[in-house]
Amino acid sequence: MAREKDAELVLTRDQADLARQVSRAVDEGVTRLVVGGDDGTLQVAGRGVAGSACSLGIVPLGRGNDFAGALGINPHPAEALAAALEPAVRKIDLGTVNGIPFNCVAGVGFDGDVSAWPGTRSGW
């Protein structure tokens, strides 16, 4: 499918690497970036394309997939990829906290602590 759509497959090691790759794609004038991953992956990619001419296609590959589910994206990877490559684009609103955009939910207090906790542990 990548050959048919003149696409490049880029694998990333972590969220920092993903952020660099998204920034590179936006800087190079990429108009559609399709990202496979979980809500955290989509959060990083969404920040990177926010305010640019690059649209974000989503292939949900996580356990919760809250963002993709809220948008009605098919949970099956092949179908989601096919839809992500379609020409239709839907604009969404982003929230911001301290100037940082977010695309799904924002938690404060206990909720924010619980969300941040797995990132402080190794071996997950």
From TrEMBL:
It comes from the Bacteria. GO terms for molecular function: kinase activity. Residues 1-101 form the DAGKc domain. Coiled coil: none annotated. InterPro entries: ATP-NAD_kinase_N (IPR017438), Diacylglycerol_kinase_cat_dom (IPR001206), NAD/diacylglycerol_kinase_sf (IPR016064). This is DAGKc domain-containing protein. It comes from Candidatus Polarisedimenticola svalbardensis.
